[in-house]
Amino acid sequence: AFPCHGVRKANWNIFFIPIRLAMSLLQKTFELGNLKLFIFFFICILMVPPSNAQPERINQDGLEIPRSLSRKFKRDAARLALRLESKEEDLRYLDINIPKRNIQQIYQMLTKIYQSEERARSVAKCNVHTFPNPSIDHMVLIFERDVEWAWPLLDGINETDSEEFNELLDDYDLVIDRHVQWNDTQDAITIRSKEPLNMAALANEFYNIDGIKNIDLGIPKIGGNDINLWRKSNGWEFEFVLRFGSYVAGKGNVYIWTFFVDDLGAVDFVSEGGDPLPEYMKCNFSDFKPIFVKN
Prior knowledge:
With 295 residues, the chain is α+β, with helices and mostly antiparallel strands. The protein is built from eight helices and eight strands.
């Protein structure tokens, strides 16, 4: 009840400030003997619509999303869009550019879930986002150190003398982020994109350049948190998967939240359950009772 009292008091103070200023001005006007100006100001005050003096309410649809979280949702949306496309065809043969319309649609649904559901905002505190597969923002190119186009790299300059290489950098807004020695005869450079891209398809283009021997898309071999997405008859089902415990040793635990977004944009909480969440985790609820427990 205390926050509401504070909001109501703040709103009344804001409401009375202009009235106090107007009354002060009217008093000075009356003292100066300007009756016409006094009457004018008095009529203006009467025309001001009364305030309902209700405390301000937050529209959940307008709940502000932190920029850092918004960026993560955009990466999640791009990865989920690419996963959906990969169900139809191998990533290597799809377009390098991920359709922005698909990314935006999924991003809007993710933000809608966050804005509409307190559970989803709690899940975000546990950093539940898409597992980095497929790769959408970087890859490591491994190449022969003595290849001519790499000479600027050996001099500490993040450029190459390959016209084909440089065109790919320009066409897809890529940057050479890091150059390291890979082994006795090979070096490696990390390529990063400013916008989400289908890195598996982009890698095919770099394989055509002389001297490039291997490309690592940076996909972890051990699982982690993830978001899954399935199309239903009248909307989309999102599954937020939290993994914790000794997952590296194969003894990890799993907890899952499921939400549904219909084609009109309405959000419904479907279910949650899994292994009991540790008390220290930020997405834990004090009244937690597992719906199902993994054996």
